[in-house]
Amino acid sequence: xxxxxVTATAPAPEPRILxxxxxxxxxxxxxxxESEAIHIMREVAAEVERGVLLFSGGKDSAVLLHLARKAFHxxxxxxxxxxxxxxxxxxxxxxxxxxxxxxxxxxxxxxHVQDSIDNGRVTEEKGPRASRNRLQSVTLLDAIEEGSFRxxxxxxxxxxxxxxxxxxxFSFRDDFGQWDPKRQRPELWSIYNGFVKPGEHVRVFxxxxxxxxxxxxxxxxxxxxxxxxxxxxxRDVFKRDGMLYAVSDxxxxxPNEAPFEESVRFRxxxxxxxxxxxxxxxxxxxxxxxxxxxxxxxxxxxxxxxxRVSEAxxxxxxxxxxx
Amino acid sequence: MANGAATNGRPVPxxxxxxxxxxxxxxxxxxxxxxxxxxxxxDTKSIFEDQLEHVEETSKRRGDGYVNLALLTDGLRAxxxxxxxxxxxxxxxxxxxxxxxxxxxxxxxxxxxxxVTGASTADLALILVDARKGVLEQSRRHAFIASxxxxxxLVVCINKMDLVDYDQEVFDSIAAExxxxxxxxxxxxxxxxxxxxxxxxxxxxxxxxxxxxxGPSLLYHLEHVHVASDRNLQDARFPVQWVVRPMSDxxxxxRGYAGEVASGVFRSGDEVVIMPSGRxxxxxxxxxFDGELxxxxxxxxxxxxxxxxIDVSRGDMICRPHNQPxxxxxxxxxVCWMAERxxxxxxxxxxKHTSRTALxxxxxxxxxxxxxxxxxxxxxxxxxxNEIGRLSLRLSAPLLxxxxxxxxxxxxxxxxxxxxxxxxxxxxxxxxxxxxxxPGPR
Lengths: 323, 442
What we know:
The complex is a heterodimer. Helices cover 32% and strands 15% of the residues of chain A. Chain A is α/β, with parallel strands linked by helices. Chain A folds into two domains: 21-215 and 314-320, HUPs (Rossmann fold, 3-Layer(aba) Sandwich); 224-309, no CATH class. Chain A has a six-stranded mixed β-sheet with strand order 3-2-1-4-6-5, with helices on both faces. Chain A has a four-stranded antiparallel beta barrel with strand order 7-8-10-9. In chain A, helix 4 links the parallel strand 2 (81-85) and strand 3 (108-112). In chain A, helix 2 (29-47) packs across helix 3 and helix 7 (212-222) runs antiparallel to helix 8 (285-294). Chain A starts with 18 loop residues before the first helix and ends with a helix. Chain B is an alpha+beta fold. Chain B has three domains: 6-230, P-loop containing nucleotide triphosphate hydrolases (Rossmann fold); 237-319, Translation factors (Elongation Factor Tu (Ef-tu), domain 3, Beta Barrel), CATH 2.40.30; 326-434, Elongation Factor Tu (Ef-tu), domain 3 (Beta Barrel). Chain B has seven helices and 25 strands. In chain B, helix 5 (137-148) links the parallel strand 6 and strand 7 (153-159). At the A-B interface, helix 2, helix 3, helix 7 and helix 8 of A face helix 2, helix 3, strand 4, strand 5 and helix 4 of B.
C-alpha cells in the first residue's frame, strides 16, 4: 500500500508490481484488514438500498473515507457523507471536513444538533458538565429517517469498548433505531445480511476488526491527511477529572479550573465539551504512532468523558441509537 | 517506526510483514477459557492500565480475592450481572510477528450457534480441556464443530495442570483419548499443550514446572503455525460484487469488475470464463486505487478489467476455463440451525452465497446429526436452534458452488427468513458425488 493522496477522479498512478508479495502471496495484516473493509463497503453499495457514510472528521472516519475511495475507484462514492454536527466543534475539524470531502467529490450532508434543539426534539443540558454528546443520537436518527438511509457506515471498532466487542459488522437497528445485543443476527464467513424493512436500518462497521494501533499504522502507511489537532500544538487548556480540556465558549469552567497553556494533541475527536487532550510533543505521524504504541491507557479511557458516566455508558447509548 | 520494534515493552507488529491470524476459542466457564484469554492479553501487554484498574476494582467488589483476569473479557451488563457469556466477542492482540483476532465463544450446549459463527472465519481453533475432568461431551462437540467448519488447525490446551501436580500421565491420557475422537473427524493438524492459565504455565513462555513437555508454549505455537498455505491457491474464483463504471470524462469507457479473490491466483493476461454465461475473455488488467497489480490472490479486494466488452454483473463469477465451480439448482449441505423458530421442511428461505442471492426450498431433511455422538437420526422431522443436519435444497436460480471442504468461500451460504429477515441457517455445501458421507466424520 503506497502513499495515495490523489482524488477519486484523478488518473490512476503508474502501474507497479509488488515483487515481495507476488513471490509468496503473503498478505500483511493491514492489507488483509483493508481488503475486508473494501469488501464490506462494496457489499453495502450493491445490496442495501440507500447508504450513507458517517464522517466526524476524526481519524477513524478519515480512514473510512479513504477506504471508500479505494473501494469504488476510479468511480466516485456511490453514497453521500454525513456529519452530525453538535455545533461544539473544533474549528480545525470543520475546516478539515470541508476540504477532504470537497477533494473526494462526495456529497456532504450536515445534520445539526442545534436544529433538533430549536425544533424541540431535544433539550439542551445546562451547567459546567453540559454536553451535546447524548443529544446527537436523536439528530442522527432523525437524519437517517429523513434520508431513508438503510445502510449507515460508521467508523466504530470492537477494540474501543466492551459493548462494541460484541457488535456485528452489520448491526441491525429496529424501527426506533435501537440496538438489541440479544437479538443480533449471526454473522458467518464474509456473508453479510443487510436485509431490512422500511424504517429499519443497518449500521455497518468496516473497521470492526481494526485496533487503534492498526488505524494509526494504516494512516502512516497510506499517508492519510488528518486534522491538525491530532498533532502536538500549544493550546489553552484546563484540568477536570484528571483530563485536559480545551478552553472554549462551549464549556463552562468551574471556579477551580484555571486555564493554562500546554503542548497537547488529541487522541480522539468528539465535540469540544467531551473530548480531552493528552500532553504530548508528537508533531509528526511517526512520533504519534510511537506514542500510541507505548501508551498504557485506552483512548476512550484517557480522553472521553462520555464513556466515564457509568460502567455501561456505551452500552446504554448504543441501545438508544448512538453511533 | 521501525518494523517489529518494541516500544516501552509493548511489541509493535510490523506494518508490512506481520500476518493476520484468526482463532476461535471454545470451552465452558469452568474450563478457564476467560482466564486464558485474559492471560494472553495481559502477558502480551495488550491490556491497558484503565482496563486493568477496572478489573482490579471489580474483583475486589466481587470478593474474588485475586485479580480475576477472566473479567477482562466480560462484555455486556447482562453478562456481568449473571456471570455468563451470551454471544461471540472479538478480542485483539498482537506480537511483532502477528496480529491476532480471537472469536471468543461460550461453550454451553445451547450455544453451538455461536461456536459455528466464531469458527466460520477461524484459521485455528483453541479448545480447552480441564485436566481434572478429562475429555467431556462438550470437548468432543467442540472438536466436531471445528472439523465441520474446516478449521485447518486444532490446538487442545489441557488446562489447570497445576491442580493435577503437573502430572505427565494425566496429560498423556487426555491427549490419547482426544486423539481417538479426532481420528473419527476430519482433523489434520492437532496439537496438545499442557497449561495453567491461572499461573501462566506454557501460555506465553515455556514452564519450568513441566520439564517432561518438549513442545512450544501456546503463544509460540500461535505465532508460528503456518496459516498462509491454508488458502486455496489452486481454484481461481472471483465473485463479482460491483461493476465499476465511472462514466466520467476521464474514464468514459472504463468498465471494471470489483470483488475479493475467493481462491486461486489471477494474472493479467489469463484466459478466463464468466460463469454462468460461459463467455470467455482475457484479463486486461487488475486494478487497485494504488495502481495495477500483476497478480491477485486471496483475500485481496481488486477490480478486474477484461479485454472483451461482455455482459458481466454482480453475482457472476470469474473463473478459469478448465477449472470451474459446479453450476447447480440443487445442493446438499450440512446446515446449522440458528433461529428460535425451527427449520420448516418444505419451507422457503432466502439463500445468500458469495455475491448471489436466490430462494431455496427445503426438499428433504436427510438426517439430523447428534453433535456429541455423531449419530444420524434419519427420522428427524425438523431442526431446532443449535441443531445440525443434512438438507437437500432446491434453488430458484443456479448458484456457483464448490464443496465446502475444498473451498470455504464458494462452499458456504446462509439462509435468511423471508418474513423476519433474520439469518436462520449456516450451510456448508457437500459434494453431490460423495453420496451420503457428511463432511466431518469419515
